[in-house]
Write a structure and sequence with these properties.
The complex is a heterodimer.
Chain A (H helix, E strand, L loop, with lengths): L2 H23 L8 E7 L5 H20 L8 E7 L4 H14 L4 E4 L3 H14 L3 E3 L16 E3 L4 H12 L6 E5 L4 H17 L4 E6 L8 H11 L3 E4 L4 H12 L8 E7 L1 H4 L11 E4 L8 H14 L5 H20 L4 H8 L2 E5 L2 E5 L10 E9 L2 E10 L1 H4 L3 H7 L4
Parallel strand pairs in A: 1-2, 1-3, 3-4, 4-5, 6-7, 6-8, 8-9, 9-10
Antiparallel strand pairs in A: 10-13, 11-12, 13-14
Chain B lengths: L12 H33 L6 H19 L2 H26 L11 H21 L4 E2 L9 E4 L2 E4 H23 L1 H11 L1 H6 L4 H22 L5 E2 L3 H16 L4 H20 L4 E2 L2 E2 H5 L2 H12 L27 H20 L2 H26 L8 H18 L3 H23 L4 H21 L1 H4 L5 E2 L10 H23 L2 H11 L1 H6 L4 H27 L1 E2 L6 H14 L6 H19 L3 H15 L4 H15 L1
Helix pairs in contact in B: 1-5, 1-8, 1-9, 1-10, 2-3, 2-4, 2-8, 2-9, 3-8, 4-23, 4-25, 5-6, 9-10, 9-12, 12-17, 14-19, 14-22, 14-23, 14-24, 15-16, 15-17, 15-22, 16-17, 16-22, 19-22, 20-22, 23-24, 24-25
Classes of the chains: A alpha/beta, B mainly alpha.
């Protein structure tokens, strides 16, 4: 074997040996601990999922310091779901079969969350879909074993539509990423705004592929349609380019904008002082919420990570405390009893009390809606208010028609 | 509903059209800079450089850091941009000197594997160095405003971009026509062996080419900062697009790249402006996902070597002439039997999770073998093989969902789905050759993907189809494993049988010498078309099994990443042996699954392992074993 082959081979075998070693160590510690499986798009969408992970890490530390759950210490085994449904199902399998996870929580992308929820249904494992926004998870494709924590697109769109209805604007244009999240966010907003304001019409729409927004062209097309107001659902790099291009080309002048998620520090903070002032947004004003439960959470988070919490952190934190609440209510970690315990389960979170509704396994977690501005070079929400989930979710009759039968 | 200007908002159509034109020109410029770097590298080295998007991303990140460090201002900004281009160039040189230089003599396309490893490494290094958050690009001093053109406004920076691309084009023209380096590069593009024979130091020529290409990509990344950001998805976000531009322009042609960038950018701007218009019930925005791939497909069908490309010389192979496929020697057959016995005994020994992974590996082994049949036996490279895997998966899933077929029946729909797709797409593809053919397969795969993504009523859109679980008798992990094992073994034996049948020999004749094969009366194109269809059929079987393993299908199954995975498996194992794809599938799938459970930095480790394997086994793992074995035989 020549030297070149040897170096390469040594590199490869060394790494393989290293991971074979760790792989054999893992199952040993499962005995009297409660093992939970977490999965999220840690490599594909790091900017949103790493704060989420920090959220449950904080909760884990607190829970174990105060004696664990049912007197047992808790371990979380965390995996990257590869941002793909097929990879996520492999990982779910691994967490359940090899690591012995009692239940699963996590995921961000809707189609990944849906694939895991179907896995949960098939294998009868509890899955808390922490972050996916698609309401399909709770309704059309809902099942007994899947619970959804975050308020979905419907609730967020309803809050924006309520505020948007107060504007004089009649001719609206929409821009949303071309996939289920964007489509349902636009459909819900249109329906709810028209219900409140029959005189409103939607005159133009843009559906850029996620991550591929041609900002100059989109802004130009929207200006040419000359709407009174714009409803935006884009986020991430698309939003950055869209805001900047719109500013240079004067799209935002004298034109109100209602924008989904754009008050969440996760998405808007990279804009710093270029954040679009005056936009109506849903988000998370961590700097201004002054309740005992949130102050406690924020202080603990800043102390542990030397950084401020994002909305993802709240979700991760609440996800682990949901598990704790359900297990303590059930008095066991057995799946079927846990599922029953989740019905109308109440618990406190940093953003107030929530209930896991028995009717659709969706929580009543609410959202903040307010106006975006810039203070000291950072985006801030002002004139915000908190909307409770139960006030914006559709009526029980509607939910019953939407919800899949188990 | 229309987004086009109407009378009530007062934008005259001509003015709107002109401003659209300028917007298109500006976005073409950034695209051109990245694409011309790729086309220069390909022209000389024939390397399909996946890492080009990584240079682009690094250019953006380095420029961001440099501009911040230099404190902005005119010199800070432009100094930062230049520094970023130089740094990206040097990183390209480092990759060329440490990795690629060692494997120039490997078989065609093998270098692609190394650049794929580099992509994975750079993704995690960038995450580590710059963090997960998107970094908002600094604005270019003095170019932050806009120029009014009637009621429309054109950003000043757009005007700069519009002028900058032709400037770069001019400089490159001078470089290639008025300097010794440029003349040598052009000569090497035409005939590398001849340049070497004339005593030119090839090593430094290739290194220089890499510097130039990578620096241009870095410049492209830096120059787009004022329009957007530096972020972790930039590399994969641009790479497919850049390949399209390069191929549409004709690989190796810089002017072609510029024209292609213009064409694509303008078509896209036009599509955005008329997003609401519809044709045959399909709205333009629904097509936007694949617009550039559709453009490429049309261009390639009409002009098989791109707009300004030249017919590829027939000496495409720059490695040794491929040895003929040999029937396995007795020792290997015994080894295969032993492996089979182990596989049969596996459910008794392994836990549930290991069995699930083993099932997945078996399915990928069949998938990789189907691609290998096309590449190794047929000499047809496919960058879009996931299309047939996905069509198989969807074929089965649709039968389950819409017609409530049981698993046993649905599994027969899978090969039909894959074969039908391959039959249609293949008819167009086999008219081309080399990288152009490969890119056309990619285009068709993207079109299939877009249909699955967009035809929500039938395919479930991006959420896919759920609830595709095996029948009750195969529902347990060991039972399903058994089913997969039987199907995969039968299919693999069938592939092997075909490779050694008269059809297989004809196919191999067409691969090794199309001219001679033609002369003895083999219809090479038809042979390739059949091979394409067969490969699609086998991939479809794998896809159908995969759907039932995962319980759901989604458009990701037809996506570029899965096509690349298949390519990586085949190359890793070795193109020249029938066992290669199996070895590659096992190595890649097992490594990836284990690394994902080990760490969130699994991409870095996987990339390092791949680069290590590439350097150790330039013939692929199975190829290496065979070479050892054959060397012994001849010595004895």
């Amino acid at each position: 074997m020549n030297r070149r082959a040897f170096t390469g081979l040594a590199l490869a075998t060394g790494l393989t040996a290293a991971l074979a070693g760790t792989a054999t160590l893992a199952p040993a510690l499962a005995a009297d601990k409660i093992v939970l499986g977490d999965m999220n798009s840690y490599t594909g969408f790091a900017s949103f999922t790493i704060p989420y992970k920090q959220g449950w890490e904080l909760a884990l530390e607190e829970i174990n310091a105060s004696g664990g759950i049912l007197g047992r210490q808790v371990t979380v085994v965390s995996r990257d779901d590869g941002a793909k449904p097929a990879d996520a199902v492999t990982v779910a399998n691994e967490l359940v079969s090899r690591e012995g996870a009692t239940l699963l929580f996590g995921t961000l992308l809707s189609h990944v969350g849906l694939a895991v929820s179907d896995f949960a249904k098939q294998k009868k494992v509890i899955f808390i879909a922490a972050e996916p926004l698609s309401d399909t998870i709770a309704w059309q494709k809902g099942n007994r074993y899947t619970f959804r924590l975050r308020p979905g697109t419907y609730v967020q769109a309803a809050m924006l539509a309520e505020e948007a209805a107060k504007l004089p604007a009649k001719r609206w244009a929409t821009i949303a990423p071309n996939y289920e999240y964007g489509q349902s966010a636009v459909a819900a907003f249109k329906e709810l705004l028209k219900a409140k304001r029959p005189d409103v019409e939607f005159i133009a729409e843009q559906w850029p592929a996620l991550g591929k927004l041609d900002a100059g062209a989109a802004v130009q097309a929207l200006s040419a349609a000359n709407p009174d107001a714009i409803y935006n659902v884009t986020f991430g790099p698309d939003l950055l380019r869209f805001v900047r291009e719109g500013k240079v080309r004067g799209l935002w002048e004298k034109r109100p904008v209602a924008s989904m998620l754009s008050g969440e520090p996760d998405w808007i903070d990279p804009m710093k002082d270029e954040a679009p002032e005056g936009w109506l947004v849903t988000g998370y004003p961590w700097y201004a919420i002054d309740t005992p439960e949130h102050n406690k959470f924020r202080d603990a988070f800043q102390k542990k990570f030397n950084d401020y919490p994002r909305l993802g952190s709240v979700v991760g934190y609440a996800a682990l405390y949901s598990v704790k609440a359900a297990m303590e209510k059930a008095g066991t970690t057995e799946t079927e009893k846990l599922v029953d315990a989740f019905a109308d389960l109440k618990l406190g979170t940093p953003v107030g009390p929530i209930v896991y509704r028995a009717i659709d396994n969706q929580t009543t977690m609410g959202a903040y809606v307010g106006t975006l501005t810039v203070k000291d070079g950072m985006p801030r929400m002002v004139d915000w208010r908190f909307g409770k989930g139960e006030d914006y979710l559709p009526s029980d009759e509607v939910v019953r028609t939407l919800r899949a039968k188990d | 509903m229309t987004a086009a200007p109407t009378a009530d908002n007062g934008t005259p159509p001509l003015e709107f059209f002109l401003s659209q034109l300028l917007t298109g020109l500006a976005s073409a410029s950034a695209l051109f800079l990245v694409a011309c770097g790729l086309t220069i590298i390909f022209g000389v080295t024939r390397i399909v450089n996946f890492a080009h998007g990584s240079f682009y991303m690094l250019g953006a990140y380095i420029a961001y850091s440099a501009i911040t460090a230099l404190g902005g201002g005119f010199f800070g900004f432009w100094g930062g941009v230049i520094l970023a281009a130089l740094a990206a160039g040097l990183i390209g040189v480092a990759m060329e000197m440490t990795i690629l230089r060692r494997i120039y003599h490997a078989p065609e396309l093998f270098q692609l594997l190394a650049t794929f490893g580099v992509v994975l490494i750079v993704q995690d290094v960038a995450l580590y160095l710059w963090g997960p958050e998107d970094l908002l690009g600094p604005r270019a001093p003095g170019l932050t405003g806009a120029v009014a053109m009637g009621s429309q406004r054109i950003p000043e920076y757009d005007i700069f971009l519009i002028l900058f691309a032709p400037l770069v084009l001019g400089v490159l023209w001078l470089l290639f026509h008025r300097t010794r380096f440029g003349i040598l590069v052009r000569a090497a593009t035409q005939d590398r062996q001849m340049v070497a024979a004339l005593g030119v130091n090839q090593k430094w020529l290739l290194t220089g080419v890499f510097f130039l290409g990578a620096a241009l990509a870095g410049l492209g990344g830096a120059i787009q900062l004022p329009k957007g950001n530096a972020g972790l998805t930039m590399d994969l976000g641009i790479i497919a697009e850049v390949f399209v531009v390069t191929v549409v322009g004709g690989m190796g042609s810089i002017l072609g790249a510029y024209l292609a960038a213009l064409l694509i950018a303008l078509i896209r701007v036009f599509a955005v402006a008329n997003a609401g218009s519809s044709l045959l019930g399909i709205q333009l925005w629904q097509v936007e996902l694949v617009l550039i791939f559709a453009v490429m497909a049309v261009v390639l069908v009409v002009r098989p070597w791109g707009l300004l490309g030249k017919r590829e010389t027939l000496t495409g192979h720059h490695g040794a002439v491929e040895p003929p496929l040999l029937a396995a020697p007795a020792a290997l057959k015994w080894f295969a039997l032993a492996v089979l016995a182990l596989l049969v005994a596996l459910p008794g020994m392994a836990g549930t999770y290991s069995l699930v992974i083993a099932t997945e590996i078996l399915i990928f082994a069949l998938f990789a073998a189907s691609l290998h049949f096309l590449m190794g036996v047929g000499g047809v490279i496919s960058f879009g093989h996931a299309a047939y895997f996905g069509l198989g998966a969807y074929g089965a899933a649709l039968m389950v969902k819409h017609f409530a077929w049981p698993m046993e029946a649905a599994l027969f729909a899978a090969p039909l789905g894959g074969a039908l797709g391959a039959l249609i797409f293949g008819w167009f593809c086999v008219r081309l050759s080399g990288v152009y053919l490969a890119m056309l397969t990619l285009a068709f795969a993207q079109i299939a993907w877009a249909v699955a993504f967009q035809w929500i009523d039938v395919t479930g859109g991006d959420n896919g189809i759920l609830g595709i679980w095996p029948s009750s008798w195969a529902a347990t992990t060991p039972a399903f494993y058994g089913l997969v094992l039987v199907v995969v073994i039968v299919m693999l034996l069938a592939i092997r049988r075909i490779a050694f049948s008269p059809f297989g020999y004809a196919l191999r004749a067409g691969r090794d010498s199309p001219l001679r094969a033609d002369a003895i009366g083999i219809d090479v194109r038809r042979m390739r078309w059949f091979a394409f269809t067969l490969a699609g059929l086998f991939a479809g079987v794998a896809g159908g099994l995969f759907a039932f393993l995962k319980g759901s299908v989604s458009p990701d199954l037809m996506g570029i990443p899965l096509s690349v995975d298949a390519l990586v498996m085949v190359l890793l194992g070795g193109v020249q042996t029938l066992a290669g794809p199996l070895v590659g599938a096992v190595t890649f799938t097992a490594l990836k699954t284990e690394l994902v459970s080990l760490t969130n930095y699994w991409r870095l480790l996987l990339g390092l392992v791949i680069v290590g394997l590439v350097i150790a086994f330039p013939q692929g793992i199975a190829g290496f074993v065979r070479d050892r074995f054959m060397a012994k035989e001849t010595r004895a």
